[in-house]
Amino acid sequence: MKQVAIQIKNVIKEFPSRGGETPMRAVDNISLDIYEGEFFALLGPSGCGKTTTLRMIAGFEEPSSGEIIIRGKNVEGVPPFHRPVNTVFQDYALFPHMTVLQNVMFGLEMEGVERKEAEQRAKEALDMVRLTQYERKPRQLSGGQQQRVALARALVKRPAVLLLDEPLGALDLKLRKAMQYELITMQQKLGITFVYVTHDQEEALTMCDRIAVMDKGLVLQLGRPEEIYETPKTRFVADFIGETNFVEGTLDTFNNICATVRLDATTTIDATPPAGVELEVGQKVTVAIRPEKISLVPDTGAADSEAVSVEAAEVMQAIRQEQNKTFIPGVITFSNYIGTDTRYTVRIGEKTDLVVRIQNFGTRYDTRFKNGQRVMVFWATENARVLTS
């Protein structure tokens, strides 16, 4: 059984409003268990409550009500420097007048660790983050190097939990991706619980074992990256995590594995109904489907159709043999070549537009289409989901 590192129980955090009005609720009665050795993300847009939650774990803020328990101990009233956690901030908060080594040693010296031991541990922490310019000052370092110093300073005290508040936000894209890999490797090597705050969906999906998606102080969904991405429970989660088509329609028929949704008088599509939610024929619903889950093939039955390659014909034959699918005609209304794939807008039915992303396999697979070309639009039923909230 997994050991719990941090328990957040029915935590509410309110801040006073100006003029004695109703307090502003930043965190609204959330409960979470974060396990030992887990890389856990608090993900959401600005103002969702993720940083406030992190600050309450760190001890910089106290909950208005509820409990925060770290390794079995209620930390109410315990100051940050007496909690078994350390925090890496987005701005790094390095001392500009100190050298790299002095910055990392500082926390140990404040705890009364002998200078010789503090220096040895600081150098070990800096070696761990692959930074050996001990005598440089922060202003002489790049953004990536400053971030490594901040990490070493947090790790040198050997915390049970490392809290990271958007630590890669100030880095350029290439360096940010490199640091993502380094953080994953470091966390796996050390086995420390990481709690990571970010608004970057790709970052959370790439790095973390589990994700809590937050909005307006609430945890809307908690799960593994593949669960969050593949089976979003609400429209907000589906929209916030990656790109999604939202198709509005009316529920025609449904059973436990398939719901048929009518878009207009002549067009219906199939999708997976939500588990544990009561549905009624005739109710308005939204179908969510990711652009990369949709396939396009030439419509060979169209009057203006051209001959297709043998490979494309084989793909079309395989699609037709699929049992649980949507396979309907459409027209390309816009295309945008972006290198690895092409982004299409496809009109289906009377007025429904879908965004479709097709990987560029080459001309022999007929994966490139022209504006105005008639196509057949396909997706497996399991890849489209009915949302009611």
Keyword list:
single chain, 389 residues, alpha+beta, Rossmann fold, OB fold (Dihydrolipoamide Acetyltransferase, E2P), 5-stranded antiparallel sheet, 9 helices
Description:
It is a single chain. The chain is of the alpha+beta class and 389 residues long. The protein folds into three domains: 4-235, P-loop containing nucleotide triphosphate hydrolases (Rossmann fold), CATH 3.40.50; 243-289; 292-378, Nucleic acid-binding proteins (OB fold (Dihydrolipoamide Acetyltransferase, E2P)), CATH 2.40.50. It is 25% helix and 34% strand. It contains nine helices and 20 strands. The chain has a six-stranded mixed sheet with strand order 6-7-8-3-9-10, sandwiched between helices. It has a five-stranded antiparallel sheet with strand order 13-12-11-14-20. A hairpin with an 8-residue loop joins β1 and β2 (24-35).
How much helical structure, as a percent, in the residues?
10-25%
Radius of gyration: 26 Å
What's the helix count? 9
Order of helices and strands: EEEHEEEHHHEHEHEEHHEEEEEHEEEEE
Counting structural domains, the number is 3
Strand order of the largest sheet: 6-7-8-3-9-10
Major pleated sheet: 6 strands, mixed
CATH architecture of the largest domain: 3-Layer(aba) Sandwich
Q: What's the β-strand tally? A: 20
Summarize the structure.
By secondary structure, this protein is α+β, with helices and mostly antiparallel strands. The protein has helices at residues 50-58, 100-110, 115-128, 143-155, 173-190, 201-207, 225-230, 235-240, 310-321; strands at residues 4-15, 24-35, 39-43, 65-70, 73-74, 85-88, 161-165, 193-198, 210-215, 218-223, 245-254, 259-262, 268-271, 284-289, 295-298, 325-337, 341-348, 352-359, 374-380, 384-387. It is 25% helix and 34% strand.
